[in-house]
Amino acid sequence: MDLAQLSPTAGTYHFMKEVFPAESYFSYAEFGIYKGDTARHVCELFPNATLFLFDFEENIARAKTALAAHAHRIHFFPNSQRYNDSYNWSLGKLIATNTRGGIFDYCFLDGAHTYAVDALTFFLCDRLLRVGGYMDFDDYAWTLRGSSLDPAHVPQIAEQYTEEQIGTQQVKMIVDTLVRPDPRYEEIVPKKIYQKVA
Length: 198
Fold this sequence. Notes:
single chain; Rossmann fold; 21% strand
């Protein structure tokens, strides 16, 4: 099966099933969980996985209810909607308190989709990702323009981003300028999944 032809989330599930036996123990981090559907599928597919879930407070609150049956193996990291708050703050605190080296085996980045937030997220995740682990980037070709955040629908976006930023594929920019050139990462699924090899 050509994973690159699947929808981003379906590609994630299929890939994870290829590399992790169903009963294996591993740590999965997800950034931008929204309603928690992807996390719920991971819980169902991998009953021994430990999850680290990052998103806005309201999405985390909803996920806590939806994933209550799996709460014993989930760590929740909420952040506020304040302009300079993001899951990067939670990641920074996790790095500060972590003395074991890498703790993540899989990071699914489906959050802000902007260079200003997610470029830093990549570097912070790298600090917590074990060698052999995977970085999975959602929506490689996504742009603010044409999305639900298009300035035509959300005028504040035009105040927060330049015209160039609104039209730029910012996930692509992160992958192409930060991940692909890094010799410690190997592209496994084109434009999507990268394995930390060193």
